[in-house]
Specification:
The structure holds 2 protein chains of 2 kinds. In chain A, helix 2 packs parallel to helix 6 and helix 3 packs antiparallel against helix 6. Chain A has 6 helices and 1 strand. The mean pLDDT of chain A is about 90. Chain B is an alpha+beta fold. Chain B has a domain of about 180 residues: Barwin-like endoglucanases. Classes of the chains: A mainly alpha, B alpha+beta. Chains A and B meet through helix 3, helix 4, helix 5, helix 6 and strand 1 of A and strand 1, helix 1, helix 2, helix 3 and helix 4 of B.
């Protein structure tokens, strides 16, 4: 899977492992993973933009769209964000992960 | 892997995940519509950023090669002489900067489109650790990729003469003042900062700016000693300079002028004494970027190479 610079903070792997426990077709699993991954990107991007002063948005997005895997982006965010951005991304991602794990649990059928 | 005894109601899970996905997309769009518009104009949907990253890697775009270099925060500092020192081998730096720029720049000097400008500023940021921009505080030059020609030394104070200028004396000194007058009112008031500004100055075509005639006073003040980065894309040599003169005239076919020191560092002080350069404003509100060449710290090179 292609890397994004914040992947180590969101750890979607646990959800993929959970889905692996069920008899899903490859198509079903891919579809779920795509939805989960996209949702994480939405959440993460929102956290980043919420906490990065507006004057730095253009610079961040310009670099992000050219090299989404560039680890220097995290340095840029740490330098310019109003809060501990790594911690915030991790917290939001953990919260979302718990919600999704719960959705999976609630979708179980005997 | 041990499969769970339970199976999943896939329709239910799909609807739950789809709902979350849509809701998160809506919230992101609602709060940050201009940012999302920016990405979408580039053909990127935020939820599909991984797919975009995969496409970039597949097309051999910037990311991989830029990661070969240390991060800007690790590679840049100021030395005692005031030059900006990049902790990477000269050949690596030159090769990286020159190679990456030539991938983006058009074959001939001329106007750059927005995409090229962004890519170039990103490359400069990644490799040099310098925040450069084509447009700063609403101001932009008519051209950022053009021909630079050799200029003479400028008189820094009343009574200044060529023999006071240290190096490149054969370049001579202009009989008149630079576009912004003397650097100091007297020799006593000439300090190290002003000496450096005259050494590394450029001339830009402010007289051809579309609003020069109507906003002369403001623009004149804004451009005076405005910090720029000048890069020779053919060899990767880069220098931080200031605007201290206006010109050259359009009929010369050149777009910028460079002081003897600038031209020498860019290795354009030979032959016709002109060549193509990228010239961008340096966004340096805290005045951290020192004027002068981007030099290399060879002592640190072996360590840096190990980390690459």
């Amino acid at each position: 899977m292609t890397k994004i610079f914040y992947d180590h903070l969101i750890k979607v792997g646990e959800i993929i492992c959970e889905l692996d426990k069920y008899n899903l077709t490859i198509e079903e699993k891919d579809e779920f993973i795509e939805l989960v991954d996209g949702t994480f990107h939405h959440y993460t991007l929102k956290v980043i933009l919420d906490n990065l002063p507006a004057e730095h948005h253009q610079d961040f997005l310009s670099m992000f769209h050219l090299a989404p895997d560039d680890k220097n982006l995290l340095d840029f965010l740490k330098k310019h964000s109003k809060i501990d951005i790594e911690k915030e991304i991790s917290n939001i991602a953990d919260k979302l992960k718990k919600e999704i794990m719960l959705d999976i649990q609630k979708s179980k059928k005997k | 892997m041990v499969k769970d005894n339970y199976s999943l109601n896939t329709e239910l899970l799909y609807s739950k995940l789809k709902y979350k996905h849509l809701l998160s997309e809506l919230e992101l769009n609602k709060k940050h519509s201009s940012s999302i518009n920016f990405l979408e104009k580039k053909g990127i949907k935020p939820g599909k950023i991984r797919q975009h990253a995969a496409n970039l890697l597949a097309s051999g775009a910037l990311a991989g090669s830029l990661l070969l270099l240390p991060s800007p925060s690790n590679i840049i500092h100021q030395d005692n002489s005031g030059s900006t020192v990049v902790l990477v081998s000269e050949s690596s730096f030159d090769r990286a900067l020159s190679g990456q720029l030539q991938n983006v720049l058009p074959k001939e000097v001329g106007l750059l489109n927005a995409e090229q400008e962004i890519k170039i500023t990103h490359i400069i940021n990644q490799i040099c650790g310098i925040n450069s921009v084509a447009q700063l505080e609403g101001n932009r030059l008519n051209q950022n990729y053009g021909l630079i020609g050799a200029e003479q030394h400028l008189p820094r104070y009343p009574g200044d003469s060529i023999d006071q200028h240290g190096e490149y004396l054969q370049a001579g000194i202009t009989p008149g003042l630079g576009g912004w007058g003397y650097f100091a009112y007297s020799k006593n008031q000439l300090n190290a900062d002003l000496v450096q500004k005259e050494k590394y100055y450029v001339a830009v075509q402010t007289l051809y700016l579309p609003d020069w005639g109507t906003r002369t006073a403001y623009l004149s003040k804004w451009y005076k000693h405005r910090k720029v980065i000048v890069i020779n894309p053919q060899n990767g040599k880069a220098v931080i300079a200031v605007v201290a003169d206006a010109g050259p005239a359009q009929w010369t076919g050149k777009h910028f002028g460079g002081s003897p020191e600038v031209m020498a560092y860019l290795k354009l002080n030979v032959g016709m004494q002109k060549g193509p350069v990228v010239l961008l404003f340096v966004d340096d509100q805290e005045n951290n970027v020192k004027i002068g060449p981007l030099e290399y710290n060879a002592i640190n090179t072996p360590d840096i190479i190990k980390t690459i």
